[in-house]
């Protein structure tokens, strides 16, 4: 966008050759380039194709006058702004009013002097530079907002979706699975005896452990619609859309197996010398009565059950089973 000293491309529109050539000469003497046009309809085409920086527009022309041209240019710009200066022998208050109303930015009385034209162009260039700065700031703001929006959805420690994002996604997936008539699985996971981990290894090591578990969860959420999130503290959430009950339990077993293979040491767990998880799973085809709160309560209840049954397992009421029986190699060491 033009700075006050840069050279402009100026579209000069006048049906009469002499004033058009005079205006052209004056503009060129100020170091700017000129596109000439004698016909109002053609002027609109030239404007659209060549995208000049500024338009000098005669008012009185046959068939379509300068006001008509200004209106066409303004409606063609769609959010843009190219300065339009009227050049006219008519310069009563009413003429100026009509010109501004039609979308013009200023009015210059013919015959135009080079000095007046220079002053008007300089003023327009200033406005153009300010507008360019404003657009730049708006774009920066838009980008910052997009970044903030993204950050507001992410848990800072683990990089997983945070509680706010999880709540949003859960509502969306309940609605989507209800429409599709498909099963939705929700799992709440909790690291076993994490207080003891912190107490023995320290909070910094505890944080690192949370990050490692989060990485594992991210790696096991393979489908595009699967979401892994940190629901708070040492509690994680998985949203697995279009995942039936049996699939959810298979997934849970695979996750426990991956965690076992990762062999993250737990310094003080009565369950295992490795970090273990307990999980509560709930699966349903959502109907009109299904709520996010209801699903979370059911999953939390199932999680409580998994803890009560000895930890290091998933429990699902709907399946009436837990993952324990299938994985003898996961038993406490
Ligand atoms: N390092 C770390 N610890 C956290 C964070 N958030 C919560 N905790 C700790 O997680 C522990 C959770 O303890 P509890 O709720 O008693 O659960 P638990 O010790 O895992 O016991 P069970 O769940 O019954 O197996 C507490 O010691 C919290 O301080 C965190 O961001 N970083």
Automatic annotation (TrEMBL):
Entry-annotated residues carrying 4-aspartylphosphate: 58
Signal peptide span: none
Coiled-coil region: 124-154
Catalytic activity line of the entry: 2 GTP = 3',3'-c-di-GMP + 2 diphosphate
GO MF, any single term: diguanylate cyclase activity
GO biological process: cell adhesion involved in single-species biofilm formation; negative regulation of bacterial-type flagellum-dependent cell motility; phosphorelay signal transduction system
Organism taxonomic ancestry: Bacteria, Pseudomonadati, Pseudomonadota, Betaproteobacteria, Burkholderiales
CDD domains on file: GGDEF (cd01949)
SUPFAM superfamilies: CheY-like, Nucleotide cyclase
Enzyme class of the recorded protein, top EC level: transferase
Protein name in the entry: diguanylate cyclase
Annotated keywords: Coiled coil, Phosphoprotein
Every Response regulatory domain range: 9-125
PROSITE patterns according to UniProt: GGDEF (PS50887), RESPONSE_REGULATORY (PS50110)
Gene3D superfamilies: 3.30.70.270, 3.40.50.2300
E.C. designation(s): 2.7.7.65
The keyword Phosphoprotein belongs to this UniProt entry's keyword annotation: yes
GO cellular component, one term: plasma membrane
InterPro entries, alphabetized: CheY-like_superfamily, Diguanylate_Cyclase, GGDEF_dom, Nucleotide_cyclase, Rev_trsase/Diguanyl_cyclase, Sig_transdc_resp-reg_receiver
NCBIfam families hit by this protein: GGDEF
Residue ranges of every copy of the GGDEF domain listed in the record: 182-319
């Amino acid at each position: 966008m033009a700075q006050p000293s840069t050279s402009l491309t100026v579209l000069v529109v006048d049906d009469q050759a002499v004033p058009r050539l005079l205006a052209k000469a004056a503009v060129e003497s100020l170091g700017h380039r000129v596109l000439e046009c004698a016909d109002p309809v053609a002027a609109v085409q030239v404007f659209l194709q060549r995208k000049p920086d500024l338009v000098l527009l005669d008012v009185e022309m046959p068939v379509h006058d300068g006001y008509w041209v200004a209106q066409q240019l303004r409606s063609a710009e769609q959010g843009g702004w190219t300065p339009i200066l009227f050049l006219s022998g008519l310069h009563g208050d009413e003429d100026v009013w009509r010109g501004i109303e039609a979308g013009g930015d200023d009015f210059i009385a013919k015959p135009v002097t080079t000095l007046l034209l220079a002053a008007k162009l300089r003023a327009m260039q200033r406005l153009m530079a300010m507008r360019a700065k404003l657009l730049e700031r708006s774009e920066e703001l838009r980008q910052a907002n997009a970044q903030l929006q993204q950050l507001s959805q992410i848990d800072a420690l683990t990089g997983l979706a945070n509680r706010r994002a999880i709540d949003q996604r859960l509502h969306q997936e309940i609605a989507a699975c209800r429409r599709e008539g498909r099963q939705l699985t929700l799992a709440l996971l909790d690291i076993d005896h994490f207080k003891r981990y912190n107490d023995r290894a320290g909070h910094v090591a505890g944080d690192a452990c949370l990050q490692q578990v989060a990485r594992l969860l991210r790696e096991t959420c393979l489908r595009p619609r699967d979401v892994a999130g940190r629901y708070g503290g040492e509690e994680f959430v998985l949203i697995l859309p279009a995942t039936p009950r049996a699939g959810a339990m298979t997934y849970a077993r695979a996750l426990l197996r991956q965690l076992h293979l990762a062999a993250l040491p737990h310094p003080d767990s009565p369950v295992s010398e490795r970090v273990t998880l307990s999980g509560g799973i709930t699966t349903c085809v959502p109907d009109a009565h299904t709520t996010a709160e209801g699903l979370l309560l059911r999953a939390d209840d199932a999680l409580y059950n998994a803890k009560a049954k000895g930890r290091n397992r998933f429990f699902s009421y709907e399946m009436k089973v837990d993952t324990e029986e299938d994985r003898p190699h996961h038993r406490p060491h």
